[in-house]
Amino acid sequence: MTEPHFTGDKRAIEVKSVSKSFGAYQALKSVSFDIGSNEFFTMLGPSGCGKTTLLRMLAGFESPDAGSILLNGKEVVAIPPHKRRVNTVFQSYALFPHMTLEQNVAYGLENLGWEQGRIKTRVGEMLERVHMGPMARRKPAQLSGGQRQRIALARALAPEPEVLLLDEPLSALDLKLRQAMRDELRTLQRDTGITFVFVTHDQEEALDMSDRIAVLGGGEVQQIGTPAEIYEEPVNRFVADFVGETNFLDVEVLDTTGREATSARPLAFPSPCRQPAQR
Ligand SMILES: Nc1ncnc2c1ncn2[C@@H]1O[C@H](COP(=O)(O)OP(=O)(O)OP(=O)(O)O)[C@@H](O)[C@H]1O
Ligand SMILES: [Mg+2]
User: Fold this and answer.
1) How far is the CA of 73 from the centre of ligand 2 (A)?
2) Is the CB of 53 under 6 A from ligand 1?
3) Whose CA is nearest to atom 16 of ligand 1?
4) In a domain? residue 89
5) Which domain does 270 fall in, by range?
6) Is residue 264 included in any domain, yes or no?
7) Of the residues 9, 32, 155, 278, which has the fewest C-beta atoms closer than 10 A?
8) 77-91 pLDDT, tens per residue?
């Protein structure tokens, strides 16, 4: 398993040897990684690999069977969701249909006991930030999917969380909108400086947006690294297969130096072929 190697100064999230089983099925097997403050961090992996389970643990909706989770250096396993400065955006927008957009964004702030004037200012700022100011009085049913997702983002960011969790937030959108929203999300993350933990099974999305990616497979972290590291130097066949547009070639290995192997010429490909050595 790859060791986590966040090298910045401040860790927003530390996941330490977290395991979780549902009945006899072990969904997560001693998963460890760190996420830096202000990082756009993505958990990438196929369906069923435990991405949502991990996010739910960061939010506090699920507890690990073993291991610990630290937010800003503090153990949070026993702390309920509403006492963590963490918010989630889901694939389905989960907006309140009977409320206007501004009421939807204001809702969480009212629950936190913010004073009315402060709420009004913050709601206005957030709607502007996601380019939805002119539609403030509409209801969710009068919006497109992309617009609803922008409101869901505004609502989640309004209370100034330290961490925003995003569980496949773009997967209900069509391809063109998905690409536009990637840029918007990235800009939003940079402008707010909030730590984003983004979950997807779409490798292109992950490579395009992230500072670092954790590739999950079989309930384990297979590799953690920058998009370039993950794409260009997959540590094993699982990562290469899942992330790259890889062609696997059966070759005879002639020599290995460090992590590189020199192989005999496979049919119809130039020689020598260089590829990461298998572990
Ligand atoms: N409450 C639960 N009870 C039983 N099994 C569960 C429960 N929650 C998750 N699982 C199982 O744990 C595994 C991981 O689920 P999880 O939802 O975390 O996957 P995922 O990576 O988010 O998948 P997807 O990409 O399809 O959303 C799956 O095999 C799932 O069936
Ligand atoms: Mg999921």
Assistant:
1) 26
2) yes
3) 50
4) no
5) 251-279
6) yes
7) 9
8) 999 998 999 999 987
Looking at ligand 1, which atom is closest to the CA of residue 53?
Answer: 18
Which contacts of 136-141 are long-range, i.e. CB under 8 A and separated by 24 or more positions?
Answer: 136/100, 136/101, 136/102, 137/100, 137/101, 137/102, 138/100, 138/101, 139/97, 139/98, 139/99, 139/100, 139/101, 140/93, 140/95, 140/96, 140/97, 140/99, 140/101, 140/104, 141/97
- The tens digit of pLDDT for each residue in 224-278 reads 999 999 999 999 999 999 987 766 666 677 788 876 777 765 555 443 434 444 4
Residue at 142 is within a domain: no
- Number of folded domains that form the chain: 1
Residue of 53, 54, 168 best suited for mutating to test ligand 1, as the one with most atoms within 8 Å of CB: 53
**Atom 17 of ligand 1: nearest residue by CA position:** 52
In a 3-state reduction of DSSP, which class is residue 276?
strand
In a domain, 266, yes or no: yes
Beta bridge partners of 103: none
Handedness of CA 89, 38, 146, 130 (dihedral sign): positive
pLDDT value, residue 96: 93
